[in-house]
Amino acid sequence: MPGPSVMSLEAMRAGRRVAPGRMVLYLSSRAVACAIQTMSRPGPKSTKANRRVRALLAGLCALYCVLPLSSWAGRPVRVYEVDVDGQSGPAVQDAMRQALVRATGRRESADDPALASVVADATRYVKNYAVGPRGESQVVFDGAAVEQAITAAGRSIWDRERPFTLVVLIPPRNRAAEDAARAELERAAAERGLPISLLPLAVLDSDGNLLAAPAMLQSAQRYGGDEILVGRADGAAPDSDLQWTLYTRSANESWNGPLAAGIDHTVDLLVPQPGASLAQAEVETRVRIEGVRGLVDYAAIARLLQSVPGVRRANIAAAEANSVAFDVTVRGGAAGLDQALAGSTRLVRTSAAAATAVYRYQPQG
Q1: What is the mean pLDDT of each run of 10 residues along the chain (365 residues)?
Q2: What pairing do the DSSP bridges indicate for beta strands 323-331 and 165-170?
Q3: Which distant-in-sequence residues (6+ apart) come within 8 Å of 339 by Cβ?
């Protein structure tokens, strides 16, 4: 079964050196230049605040040129390429069940009565057969047709670009135990369609306490991670009941469970809620973020917006002394974005009735 690619720390470092890329912020340097030019015109309001905004916008142009792609976007998942045991009808149906779980992110999709016809007609959705990277036989389904069928059944689609999740286990295992844990984590991640990598990142301070969330996310970002999942175990039973915490740019969430539960609950938190279909059209909506104190805050907000499920891009639209406006292209428009940010502790809605949604940025959550 093809799953999320797993890279070593050394490979990630090497990859970042040879292919730095550019960020997917879709920051319009022309728009920024126009904004700078507009605010440079002499007038009664050409104040220190305007100079501060011009400096911020100039900094954004510089930021656009240097930040890497992997710091800003999720990783595409090959949802519809599935390992298959032969080309018989039952084998293809089993592969379709796996594809449906990945496409929706929901385990129950494999046996969902609403999707039973998709499974029954699985051979109709076959695009071709192929050989995978490890020599395994694969079936490739027509993704567009399958997604259309899922949507017609009233079920939601999980975007194929998904957050690359770095997994850290505490305490460190010996080689054999680490390999066994990696195999279990990769199996669960492949089934759910979540790109992961198990890495020995330093997430504890000198006293053995977990680092603050921003520090961990910054460490994850250096290796292309969008979020970090920490599993802390009791030495007596390291893999049977771990305390898991998922750190994202918008919020943190904790739970307990074995290795597979770390992946399963992470995906449950990321996928669209039932009835909140991501098959809605993408709509551009204007949002204003207050509490922006400088370039560091701006970069954090841009990364946060890009990590929101359903967001395709976030363009800077305007900047003031303490706020930045974005045009965000998101499935479901303003309502979809508001729902996705409902549990965020970093971006808190401050106006419920205004035409332009206003959020306040809270760096420490």
Answers
A1: 41 35 38 44 52 59 46 74 94 97 95 97 96 91 96 89 93 91 96 95 88 88 90 77 90 92 94 61 88 85 81 84 88 83 83 79 76
A2: unpaired
A3: 273, 276, 332
What does the block give as tokens for 90? Answer: 């039952």
Residues 6+ apart with CB under 8 A from 336: 276, 280, 283, 310, 330
- Report the distance separating Cα 56 and Cα 32, nearest Å: 10
Nearest-10 Cα torsion for 276, 278, 279, 283: 110
Place of tokens 């965000």: 328
Instruction: Map out the domains of the chain with their CATH numbers.
Output: 26-66+280-361 (no CATH), 78-152 (no CATH), 162-270 (3.40.50.800)
Nearest to 66, CA basis, from 21, 99, 111, 97:
21
Of 149, 140, 139, nearest to 119 by C-alpha is: 149
